[in-house]
Amino acid sequence: RRHPREAMSWIPLDPIINELSNVLASGELVHDANFSLFDAMSALDIGDLKMDAGAVRDGSRLTLAQLLASGRAPKDITGRDLVRELDAMLCAEGTFRKGYAAATTVWTNAHCAGHRTGHLDDATPALRAFTRATLASASMAQHAVKTGDVYEEEDFAVLGDFGEVAGREAWATAEADDEVLIELASALMKMEDSGGDRDVEAVVARLEFRRAHHLMMKTLTGAIGAGTDARNEARQYANAAKARLKEMRNYYSEDVVDDEDAPDWDPNAGSFSKGLSLHMLGGAPPREVHFLSTRRAFEYFEREIDDVLVAAEVFKFRARKEAPTIEEVLECLERLQTRRPGAIALGLAAAELMHEKELCGWHFGHVGLHSVWTFAGVTTKTLETSFAHPKDAVDAFIDECVQPLTVVVRSFCVNRARFRRVLRRSLGEFSHLQIAADALDAAQDDALATSDEDRAKVETLRSLQAPCIAWAEHLTCYVELRHLELGFSLDLYLPHELAMVYYYMHYLQRLRVVTLRRKAMTPSTQTIQTQLCFLAEQQKLSMYSALRFTFAALLDSGKLRPCVTAFSGEDLRFWQRFSTFQTVELPPPAHYDDYKASIEANLSHFRGELTDADEAVSDVTVFAGIADRFFQEARTAADFVTEKFEPHAASDAVVASLVADVVASRVISTKNLVALRLLFATDMTCACDTKSHDLYAQITACKP
User: Fold this and answer.
1) Measured on CA atoms in the order 643, 648, 650, 652, is the torsion positive or negative?
2) Which residue, 662, 661, 669, is CA-closest to 699?
3) N or C: which end of the chain has fewer CB within 10 A?
4) H helices within 415-451, ranges in order?
């Protein structure tokens, strides 16, 4: 190896290595003077099967030429054999799209690997067209994830080039010139001439699925940054693809399968080989790959299509040619995150939202300023200047918006585990945003408002006293609350922590509801959605209160075991869970002393309401009584919301989702209420379930 500035030359190392192998001790290294720490971290351990592909034993190597010569990958298959081959290829691609490397999935198939060498030039037209469409589909998936740039290698392995396959840049090719579509159309025409038996119809369904799925992804990836709303067109192709998937599933309707998760095809037989080598170094290092079964592959593609359509909602922002608010963007991404989508849907959403390092075609700072004005209830003609703030103060605020808004948008475009981690990181950025918002409020100069319209806007700002910092606090509160909520879906909380967790969630939720109430009650912003959103979030307050005191009662009564040791107490647990929130000034972080003071205040307040003045009752009884009251309050609120808004659910997907959440919370509150009464009326023991719902823990009374 030579220094990069020197001329490149290759030196055979075999004689040197052979000579040194007899004298080098374990741990010794041969290197030149330019060897650095980076080289050491990037080096391969020669002979290690996990790192060195060349270390694969000669007997286990299998080149593409050997596999093709063995006759394991025939090109003239028809009938059921062809159907099974196409489905196995779909399973391999689905496994790749779930995040496994191309080398251990798609490239283990001889037809896919041999496509660029001309192996399929004289193959069955259906096999050739389907293979080309598979490679193009995998390439477009890789493009969406790379462009979105929100992945890590454990989420989606983007390394591994698909080579010069047709359709590599299908998103930038007109339909008439798209070789994948041309090949599929030709194959379909030939299939029509082959008769209409069951196997032929099955092959046709698979080719038509490929065509519809290709057009859906081509439409959306081609629309990234173009400012066109491609949702309706993509939805038509998506519906066609799902209809073909249904037909594909029906082909196996009479087959009896004991385990639908176990692959019903052999990923190491026929045209597939795990040891297939596509280079001179031997096979890929051994990796454990969990291939999808045929049925699971159909389900995967069907779900991914739905995820992609939800992700495509973000295209509406750029298409409408108006700056969105950060709240609108996050609401859209929240609906996507609710589905727990894969890397392709997340990458597509991120690629469109943050194309060319802007947010939907707008400077991040301008989106932040527009969000402030929308939050305050004023409209402006420009986002470059303000009607009541000096230009330098506005510019400073715009600059400070970029990093925190970028981080928080990116946090919604990653998987669940990293979602919470990136949200936590964004709080550090929000501390700078709050300082900038405070400075913009301080710089407000009413004298700059010279027109009647501008003076009216100033009066609106005065009603909020400090609108910029109020907006920053509202956004920070939302991020903190989301951070806590994610702990449930990630199963991070133990039962003895839940009283503290629900206390803090109630604290943040109460601050959030104040803003939602103003939005729901203001005539200019009052809609069915804003009213329902306010009532649904208000009902959450009742649920959080009920659950907080439920677990306080269970801990005090001994039904749940507290975690108190010589090295860990409740105060330390509180600090570990919520110290992250001390990185920002607003909302003011709650401390353990605040938590204990709140308990005492509630005991004092409700003891008199729930018992007679001369009756001595335990804290456990009071806690249980408080929880009982709030569970009933949550049920009453749920009944009101359902009765008033359920008629609107059929015509509004957002309303339908909110109503469904409220109905689910009513069911949980009823179950918890019954279990709570049983637990304190009998000697039954308590079981706690934090996995069944993303927000609300469920308790069960069990026989001792």
Assistant:
1) negative
2) 669
3) C
4) 416-442
54 with 260: CB under 8 angstroms?
A: no
Question: What pLDDT was estimated at residue 30?
Answer: 76
Residues 207, 125: Cα–Cα separation, whole Å? 11
CA distances to 240, 506, 600, 621, 628 from 633, rounded to whole Å, are 46, 15, 22, 18, 9
Task: Kindly report whether the global pTM for this prediction surpasses the value 0.90.
Answer: no
**Which two three-digit tokens encode residue 413?**
């475009």
- Distance, in Å, from the CA atom of 177 to the CA atom of 685, rounded to the nearest integer, reads 69
CA dist 515 and 477 (Å) reads: 11
What sections of 251-338 are H helices per DSSP? Answer: 294-311, 315-319, 326-338
Distance, CA of 455 to CA of 100 (rounded, Å): 59
pLDDT score recorded for residue 405:
95
Q: What dihedral angle (degrees, nearest 10) is formed by the CA atoms of 306, 310, 311, 315? A: 130
Q: What is the pLDDT of residues 639-683, one digit of tens each?
A: 999 999 998 888 888 889 899 999 999 999 999 999 999 999 999
Banded model confidence at residue 581, pLDDT cuts 50, 70, 90? very high
Q: Tell the residue number behind the tokens 């057009």, with chain if given.
A: 215
CB 95 within 8 A of CB 153: no
Q: Which of 223, 218, 242 is nearest to 307 (CA)?
A: 242
pLDDT the model gives residue 523:
85
Burial code (b: 16+ CB inside 10 Å, e: under 16) for 463-499 equals ebebbbbbbbbbbbbbbbbbbbbbbbbeeebebbbbb
Two structure tokens written together for 175: 């339909």
- Half-sphere CA count of 261, side-chain side, radius 13 A: 1
What is the pairing mode between strands 685-689 and 62-63? unpaired
Q: Provide the Cα torsion 19, 21, 26, 30; round to 10°.
A: 50
Question: DSSP string spanning 232-271?
Answer: HHHHHHHHHHHHHHHHHHHTTTT---S-SSS-SS-TTSTT
How many angstroms from the chain centroid is the CA of residue 408?
Answer: 13
Judge whether 147 and 228 are in contact, CB under 8 Å.
no
Q: 641's torsion region: left (phi>0), alpha (psi -120 to 50) or beta?
A: alpha
